[in-house]
Amino acid sequence: MLLKGPDLLTSLPSVLFRFRQREVAITGDIKEMFHQILIRPEDRQAQRFLLRDSATEPVQEYVMDVATFGSTCSPCSAQYVKNRNAEEWKQVYPDVAAVIVENTYVDDYANSSDTVEEAVRIALEVKEIHASAGFEIRNWLSSSKQVLRRVGEETTQVSKCFIAEKSTGSERVLGMAWLPEPDEFTFALKLRDEVVQLLAEGFIPTKR
Question: Which domain holds residue 30?
Answer without folding.
Answer: 12-158
